[in-house]
Amino acid sequence: MVAAIAALLLSALVSGTTGPAQALANPYQRGPAPTAASLESATGPFEVASTKAPSGHGFGGGTIWYPTTTAEGRFGVVAVSPGFLSPEYTIRWYGPRLASHGFVVITMATKTVWDQPGSRATQLLNALTYVTDKSTVRDRVDPERRAVMGHSMGGGGTLLAARRDPSLEAAVPLTGWSMDTDFSSLQVPAMVISAEDDGIAPDYSHSRSFYESMPESLDKAYLLVAGASHFAPNSPNTTIAKHAVAWLKRFVDDDTRYDQFLCPLPSAPEIAEYQGTCPLG
User: Does the pLDDT value for residue 77 go beyond 60?
Assistant: First the structure.
């Protein structure tokens, strides 16, 4: 029996398959081995359904998207916030896109469209707690594997939430806006996504400053989308989705199969600049 198990482990390592040996090594791994085509597709490998989240739980309500399968165990959870003056629908496309790669995702509304980044940080954390503790899909969620994401002031709120709660697994601010640009104490792996032609949260004073303030010991990345405006994250964008999914899969699911999309550092016509530490462990 011992010899058979050893042979199975060796076979999986050599072949790169996603069989029992890898599942044993990483109990959080979900879905088939990724390819560039699968990450660039409008949908991932999982069928997705949705349910509404009511207001009154410390955020403005929203929509929860989740894989319909129950055969692969529980999934990590991601909360996504819209930006200033923006309703939920501006970031709703992230719900089915991320969920189809094996996450439970809440695309949330804020209490008011005027809420500032600090309030959005609180609401992102409240939305995660609602999904893990009270939602109708809580039995599908691993409450230990949580991440935050958001656009504009929601992106600023994303980093503030991550700084406030170091137990989060990942943060992905999208053309983030925040007057607080010091994230030198951040402990949560962060991918900062910026836009080359952003006139509302200019790259040099927002996203780049966020990234440069983060400690070198942190798993971090900075992606500048070529020719993009501040509102690029508000509609389906292959460059944003591909790298955000890879980051979330790597750090929420500990899935090293996604390292190939993060290191060597990506280079493409759609990317004006990319910096990163490569996954550190």
Answer: yes
